[in-house]
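Technical annex, item 7. During the second reporting period the consortium partners agreed on a shared format for inverse folding records so that results from different sites could be compared directly. Each record opens with the tokenized structure and is followed by the designed sequence. A conforming record, contributed by the partner at site C, is shown below for reference.
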């Protein structure tokens, strides 16, 4: 049995955007370390932060926010693939599925800038995969404001180790049941690439409502996407497509399903007892979740687990895979499914 980390992260560096197309070089993100931050964001203690910031399309974003202290800089930034692999071996992780960090928040409203930075990021991840194709997989960044470019990036990713498409709970003021996204869903079905809704936000207006982050900004939007997709019966349009809800715990599943059942009854419909499996839905759980409570609602085949490698927040548990196997909270056959079988099914490994 393998141990598959279904949610690990890379932390982008200037090397990431060295992959930008030469004809788009003027859109390349760059890093500053201001001496006097003035109105720039404060650190977690509310003090002016002497740290690095990204400058992307004229906006300033904190670069070193939410970075874990239990990983080395060279490992989390992929400056040393050997260091990352050595740490994975120490943690008894066979495969990591890599998610971004900088894209957990919106970066730009400009379709050209978005395309430039998404394409560069995808080429960087492809280079990481090529260095260790048996150990790394990754989810692609789609330039959603240029749907004609999304196909290009998804096909490139599928040919270079990509196993999913990165999305947030809201994307530039659109909910994910919007028909605008249907061509991408159809292509995901064709390429066997799941839609991976990760904690974060893709809307500047939503970001402004929750400037300090937290539950409302980054996590509840994913629960809402889960609920809305089922209410609108979007998965039924794409019956072979898989959907993942990443880094938001799993304890909300019984609540969401109870609410859905009540709403279906009001429409004169019956909700299946296996609605997650029926719709190819997968959810990452935390080792702190009450899985005795969650599993009857979710089903044994629909949960996966991740470490949130490289970060430091409520989702982070670098020993998650080992704990899932050894803490005795679930029967060994269920742990095997969460660590291996379910992740393979989700990401088509």
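Designed sequence (site C submission):
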């Amino acid at each position: 049995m393998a141990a598959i980390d279904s949610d690990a992260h890379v932390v982008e560096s200037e090397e990431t955007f060295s992959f930008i197309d030469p004809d788009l070089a003027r859109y390349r993100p760059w890093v500053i370390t201001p001496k006097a931050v003035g109105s720039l964001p404060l650190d977690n203690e509310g003090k002016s932060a002497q740290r690095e910031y990204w400058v992307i399309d004229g906006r300033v974003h904190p670069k070193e926010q939410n970075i874990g202290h239990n990983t080395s800089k060279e490992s989390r930034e992929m400056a040393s693939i050997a260091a990352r692999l050595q740490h994975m071996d120490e943690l008894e992780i066979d495969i990591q599925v890599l998610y971004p960090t900088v894209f957990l928040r919106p970066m730009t409203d400009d379709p050209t800038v978005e395309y430039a930075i998404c394409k560069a990021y995808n080429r960087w991840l492809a280079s990481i995969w090529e260095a260790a194709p048996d150990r790394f997989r990754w989810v692609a960044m789609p330039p959603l404001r240029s749907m004609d470019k999304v196909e290009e990036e998804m096909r490139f990713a599928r040919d270079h180790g990509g196993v999913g498409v990165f999305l947030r709970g809201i994307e530039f003021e659109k909910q994910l049941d919007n028909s605008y996204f249907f061509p991408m869903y159809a292509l995901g079905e064709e390429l066997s690439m799941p839609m991976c809704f990760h904690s974060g936000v893709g809307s500047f207006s939503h970001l402004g409502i929750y400037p300090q982050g937290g539950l409302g900004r980054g996590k509840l939007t994913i629960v809402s996407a889960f609920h809305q997709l089922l209410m609108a019966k979007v998965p039924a349009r794409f019956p072979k497509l898989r959907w993942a809800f990443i880094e938001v715990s799993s304890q909300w599943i019984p609540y969401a399903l109870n609410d859905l059942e009540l709403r279906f009854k009001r429409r004169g419909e019956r909700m299946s007892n296996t609605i997650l499996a029926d719709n190819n839905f997968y959810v990452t759980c935390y080792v702190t979740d009450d899985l005795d409570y969650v599993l009857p609602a979710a089903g044994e085949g629909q949960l996966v687990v991740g470490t949130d490698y490289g970060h430091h927040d409520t989702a982070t548990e670098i020993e998650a895979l080992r704990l899932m196997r050894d803490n005795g909270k679930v029967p060994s056959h269920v742990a095997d499914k969460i660590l291996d079988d379910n992740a393979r099914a989700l990401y088509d490994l």
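The CA atoms of residues 54 and 60 lie 6 Å apart. The chain has a mean pLDDT of 93. All partners now use this format for quarterly exchanges.
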